[in-house]
Amino acid sequence: MTTGVIPTPAAAPVRSNRRFGMLLAMVAVGMAAFGPFLYWSGSLLCKYYGIDVNPEAAPLDPAEATGTGRLVRVALDLEVDPSFGEELVFTVEQPVQQVDVGTYNTILYHIANEGDETLYIRPIHHVSPNKAAQHFMMIECFCYNDMALHPGEQRELKVVYGFQPEMDVRVRESKVTYSLHPITEAEMRPASDSLPGGNEAAGEVSP
User: Fold this and answer.
1) Mean pLDDT value of segment 112-124
2) Would strands 104-113 and 154-163 be described as parallel, antiparallel, or unpaired?
3) Number of structural domains, the chain?
4) Is 181 helix (H, G, I), strand (E, B) or coil?
5) Domain annotation covers residue 179
6) What is the pLDDT, as a whole number, of residue 190?
7) Residue 2 maps to a domain
8) Could you tell me if 75 and 44 lie in one domain?
9) What is the DSSP code (8-state) at residue 20?
10) Could you tell me what percent of the chain has a pLDDT over 70?
11) Do 15 and 111 reside in the same domain of the chain?
């Protein structure tokens, strides 16, 4: 009669725990190894689609800005967070512009609070494609400056922008998108005055 050693009930859980521990260690190593790659690839995708966090190149002195004769068709897109409902009205006077590369163009936006409560707003802009975003320059803008819009209040928001002459000559079209996002009063950031020619009193200057 052959006898064998019967494993105790605790033996299997110990082996299982060891395997689980090894699995966790492998996951940790993988995250450490591929984390930078994932961050880099995500940043690359953002750049490819022209959604850099702060797409402004060094602006030219307006007195020295000279047209190149290369025209770029710029579509001005608007996005408003659905949570604002119909209370927030956001419009642009000229949805499409022809821009002479190397010079500045002016856009006028209008924003109004038709509700009964103060709206706290964070505007953000995106520029695409990336070849245009890399050479997008502004000397006046309201982007990235938080706004408190009181009931019934209306504002005219001015943007003066252009593209550096070094921009790829193959770029014939670009899209500039301004999106408005809700924030709380506690999340309001102080207005920046780092761009010349801006409307500091209204807090409508980009950093």
Assistant:
1) 96
2) antiparallel
3) 2
4) strand
5) yes
6) 81
7) no
8) no
9) H
10) 63
11) no
Residue 36 shares a structural domain with residue 111: no
The predicted model scores a pTM of: 0.66
pLDDT at residue 192, as a whole number? 61
Residue 196 has pLDDT above 80, yes or no: no
The answer to whether residue 82 scores a pLDDT higher than 50 is yes
Helix, coil or strand: residue 193 = coil
Same domain, 35 and 79: no
Q: Which residues pair with 183 in a beta bridge?
A: none
Q: State whether 133 and 193 are in the same domain.
A: yes
Task: Provide the domain limits for residue 31.
Answer: 8-48
Single out the residue of 127, 68, 128 nearest to residue 100, CA to CA.
Answer: 68
Q: Which residues contact 5 (CB under 8 A, 6 or more apart)?
A: none
**Alpha carbon distance 15, 8 (integer Å):** 12
Residues 145-170 have a mean pLDDT of 95
User: String of b and e for 16-50 (b: at least 16 CB within 10 Å)?
Assistant: eeeeeeeeeeeeeeeeeeeeeeeeeeeeeeeeeeb
Q: Annotate 190-205 with b (16+ C-beta within 10 A) or e (fewer).
A: ebeeebeebbeeebbb
Q: What is the pLDDT of residue 204?
A: 31
* 101 and 198 co-located in one domain: yes
Indicate if the pLDDT at residue 195 is higher than 60. Answer: no
- The C-alpha atoms of residue 33 and residue 96 are separated, in whole angstroms, by 46
DSSP letters, 22-87, are HHHHHHHHHHHHHHHHHHHHHHHHHHHTT--SS--PPPPPTTT----S-EEEEEEEEEE-GGGTTS
